[in-house]
Amino acid sequence: MSKIITKAVFPVAGLGTRFLPATKGIPKEMLPIVDKPLIQYAVEEAVAAGIDTMIFITGRSKNAITDHFDKAYELEKELEAKNKTEILKLIQDIVPPHVSCIFIRQSEALGLGHAVYCARPVVGDEPFAVILADDLIEDAGRGCMAQMVKLYEQKHASILGVERVDPSETGSYGIVKTGDFLEKSAPIEIIIEKPKPEEAPSNLAVVGRYILTPAIFDKIKKTGRGAGGEIQLTDAIADLLNDETVLAYEFEGTRYDCGSKLGFLIANVELALLNSELKEGFSAYLKALAKKF
Ligand code: UTP
Is the pTM of this model over 0.90? Predict the structure, then answer.
């Protein structure tokens, strides 16, 4: 009998080399989009999907993440003393009371597959979600992971969030070839990590949203180093396909690739324009700026 999804794994132990030196002392998932770090958007998306156990796979510079999700007694006291009740509520509500946070250390950045494997002792024998916080998905509050959990409840199979990318960009993604789409999902036939455009079986790219059955752990354990010398989650999923159905799901919403500088800047601009406090002043500024170029 399949269970519902109660646990989400957040791999945050990557080196974040594309954002050095900003990521020398903090993980890239702590970089802010407008006024919240990327990891908080990801946790909010998991909470909206009914998930109550957040498992962070941290690396060096893990403190910023643990501190962000910990109670900040001193700061709360000071805000209270200064009567800054709205801001106080903002920081008290970062993690709702029914949610627990668990931190696991990935001692070496051996790849995304290895990071996910580090969660095995906590996930156990249950299906679980994986969210890569640097893929920020904005969808007017519906929640990409909530859409995927709903699909899981119908299909009871592993699900990968996918979107079409420019064919020249396949070398930056896991790429899938699928059977026919029924509504928004289709069975995956082939998955390949970072194929060159001329070798890619399609332009359907896997983005940072996964629901995986626990069978993935034995597959990761057997997976050797792949592209970039890392233990790739994609390679383990390719092996899982030998035994189980894995679905591709074309989610609703806009994805921002905040692991790249351009995607990060675009996300900041577009989310600022959606922010009720900022949109008026910021759009006036952008219009004036556009006239100069
Ligand atoms: P990326 O492929 O974006 O790598 O990782 P990165 O190291 O974070 O960034 P760049 O490419 O050097 O700039 C995808 C996700 O997997 C996590 C990252 O934190 C990110 O969320 N990850 C990657 C780990 O947790 N551990 C790893 O060993 C590798």
Answer: yes
